[in-house]
Design goal:
Arp2/3 complex 21 kDa subunit ARPC3
Length: 160
């Protein structure tokens, strides 16, 4: 499959991450929902840093804000900063073993969420409680299966 034909796979997987956000969950389970959008974004930034970057993070953040009904830009800035950190260290992070990569993903997600919460405080929008950190830990635990699925997807469709 040609290079230009396979770029749909990147955007399809990112759109699937946004669609998963729309799935309704009981109130008790919402804290355990992994941030699939950030995980998928981080995978593509690690796998193809020349194709997925800060601009993609910006538009994903805007999509998240539209879905959640929050002020535009709250999610974007956190995702963009985490993406910049990932882009500047992607060669090193690729060399990490599975546990170290999961911990690095957890750090990036805490950074992204922390920036979003800081911005929420700055504009007097109610912030999520500290129990939201459970979802970040669940996201870090989901990193390995998501990485494996997306790696298979990337290789099957020869996304380069």
């Amino acid at each position: 499959m040609a290079h230009s034909e396979a770029s749909w796979a990147i955007y399809f997987s990112l759109a699937c991450g946004l669609i998963v956000m729309l799935v309704p969950l009981p109130v008790e389970s919402r804290l355990l929902r992994p941030d699939f959008v950030a995980l998928i974004l981080f995978y593509w930034v690690l796998a193809l840093p020349h194709r997925v970057g800060v601009t993609t993070a910006f538009f994903l953040g805007v999509g998240q804000d539209l879905i959640e009904g929050s002020p535009l830009g709250l999610s974007s800035i956190g995702l963009m900063v985490a993406t910049v950190v990932l882009l500047s260290n992607y060669q090193r992070i690729r060399q990490f073993d599975a546990a170290q990569q999961s911990l690095m993903i957890l750090v990036l997600m805490i950074l992204s969420s922390g920036i979003e919460q800081w911005l929420r405080d700055g504009i007097n929008v109610p912030a999520a409680s500290w129990t939201g950190l459970i979802g970040l830990v669940v996201s870090a635990l989901c990193w390995l299966p998501i990485r494996q699925v997306l790696r298979y997807f990337r290789r099957y469709y020869e996304v380069t």
